[in-house]
Automatic annotation (TrEMBL):
It comes from the Bacteria. Residues 327-392 form the Formylmethanofuran dehydrogenase subunit E domain. This is Copper amine oxidase-like N-terminal domain-containing protein. SUPFAM superfamilies: Copper amine oxidase, domain N, FwdE-like. It comes from Aceticella autotrophica. InterPro entries: Cu_amine_oxidase-like_N, FmdEsu_dom, Mao_N_sf. The lineage of its organism: Bacteria, Bacillati, Bacillota, Clostridia, Thermoanaerobacterales. Gene3D superfamilies: 3.30.1330.130, Copper amine oxidase-like, N-terminal domain.
């Protein structure tokens, strides 16, 4: 409503303005959708209108997006746009323009709209070296700058177009309207030694999903895995899984299949196409039906990954938990327990100075470690974590109060050479008791999905599941890695076994 009123005001203003400017034609006033280097431009932020068939944008568009310097001289009503090696002077109400000292003519004169100086998008963008075109299908103006243009003849463009066509196919199948989310391993999958990252831009340009908006989710897979996409419409729960034929894509990247063939029929590049409704309510209402689909590997084995991540992401799970799930490649209660432990550490065992850091002894390790690495950046590669597996026999030997052992957490100050630690437990049986979800009942995916959803309400309540088995100080001269040396049993050192 506010927006409508705003445009009405602009319309009235322009109507009153045009007689002064001597324009006979009534301008079409409508907002224009703009894609700048494949990214949608915020409509609220950038004013854009059509005047006599030309898209006009406020001069700020060029400082915001091109990084040009924009100046305004009120006395002469002149707008000066300074780009790299380009100087453009435009005057309100005048068709004469000066580019690097040379006079040129434009067909629609710049105008004032409130305090905004509206200038022709195409003319100024092209003067700054960009390409501008109208896309009939998407009804958007596309602006591509020269540095991006240079890439478009390469495999970047081939992969981008392939993803664009795939996204269009998916939209057609799902019905064009809705609130979309895309899950993919593009960027991780490698085809013929080439990164599949350009596909991400293709998806964005067609559907508008971006990682910043949290609706373009990159799922970690091994680089040897086939490239796949899952297009999900959040309101209906409908989604379509598309896996690419890697051999065919490689032939296309090598020039053996033409770009036009992709544009004609992208589906000839698909190895698997499968449309399903994966809304959690729907799956849990009829678990047998979905279990049969899992057995058939309708999403080539990514059923659990896709179902859990798509569902918790559309339920508004926090970004850190989603990031952890993407790294882990699915969301299970194990990952959530790691996220909850990270929250616990931040609250109850926080780092107290910039020289202090965490060191995690993952004993016994489980899916939680992946969340801890994402949230706390305690990667083994940087010396933030060591992993010690425990077999059933070892677990049996734990003292009764250490039964739910969930790791040993150190903080160590590299300057003062002091450190301390906590041994934590995580009580999954309490989670099962509180939620009434029995992990041994139903299909494994079923109870895990249920608990994933239930735990979303307990992410900030670590006190429900976490207990401190033991707190301790490091002895003078001792460092956390002393507890993870070959031949050292940290459980003996900390008196945790019988
Ligand atoms: Zn897991």
């Amino acid at each position: 409503m506010k927006k409508k009123l705003c445009f009405l005001m602009i319309f009235v203003l322009l109507l009153s303005l045009f007689p002064i400017l001597g324009l006979a034609d009534t301008p079409t006033i409508q907002p224009v959708k703009i894609l700048f280097n494949n990214m949608p431009i915020d409509k609220e932020k950038s004013s854009s209108i059509i005047v006599n068939g030309r898209t006009m944008v406020s001069s700020e568009f060029f400082s915001d997006n091109f990084g040009a310097e924009v100046k305004w001289e009120p006395i002469t009503q002149t707008i000066i746009i300074q780009g790299k090696n380009v100087n453009i002077k435009l005057i309100i109400g005048k068709k004469e323009v000066v580019i690097n000292g040379e006079n040129r003519l434009i067909d629609v004169e710049p105008l004032l709209m409130f305090d905004k100086k509206m200038v022709p998008l195409k003319f100024v963008s092209e003067a700054l070296g960009a390409q501008v075109k109208w896309n009939d299908e998407t009804e958007k103006v596309e602006v591509i700058t020269s540095n991006v243009l240079q890439k478009t003849t390469s495999e970047y463009n081939l992969l981008r177009v392939l993803a664009e066509q795939t996204a269009k196919f998916a939209l057609k199948t799902l019905g064009n309207k809705g609130d979309f989310m895309v899950l993919t391993n593009a960027g991780y999958a490698i085809i013929d030694n080439k990164s599949t990252s350009p596909c991400l831009d293709g998806i964005t340009s067609v559907i508008g999903c971006t990682s910043g908006n949290g609706n373009l989710l990159e799922i970690h897979t091994a680089d040897s895995k086939p490239l796949w996409f899952f297009f999900y419409e959040k309101n209906s729960g409908n989604g379509i899984f598309i896996e690419m034929d890697g051999i065919k894509v490689a032939r296309y990247l090598n020039g053996n299949i033409k770009l036009n063939d992709v544009k004609k029929d992208p589906s000839s590049f698909f190895k698997i196409v499968d449309k399903e409704n994966i809304a959690s309510d729907n799956l849990l209402a009829n678990p047998d039906a979905w279990n049969q689909k899992i057995q058939k590997k309708v999403f080539d084995g990514y059923e659990f990954a896709i179902v859990t991540i798509a569902n918790i992401a559309s339920k508004g799970a926090p970004a850190g938990l989603i990031k952890s799930a993407l790294f882990h490649d699915h969301l299970c209660p194990g990952v959530t327990s790691g996220y909850i432990i990270a929250n616990y550490l931040k609250k109850e065992f926080p780092l107290r100075s910039p020289s202090e850091s965490y060191y995690i002894l993952a004993v016994p390790p489980w899916c939680k470690e992946d969340a801890l690495q994402v949230i706390l950046n305690t990667t083994p590669g940087k010396g933030g974590m060591a992993v010690i597996p425990m077999n059933d026999n070892n677990k049996k030997n734990l003292k009764p109060d250490a039964q739910n052992l969930a790791g040993i957490y150190f903080r160590y100050d590299s300057v003062t050479k002091k450190g301390d630690g906590v041994v934590l437990s995580f009580d999954f049986s309490k989670a099962q008791g509180l939620s009434g979800i029995n992990m041994n009942k139903g299909f494994p995916w079923e109870s895990r999905l249920k608990l994933d959803i239930w735990l979303l309400n307990y992410l900030e309540k670590p006190q429900f599941f976490i207990n401190v088995i033991k707190s301790f100080e490091l002895k003078p001269g001792e460092v956390p890695t002393d507890y993870a040396q070959p031949g050292v049993n940290p459980l003996v050192k900390l008196d945790l076994i019988k």
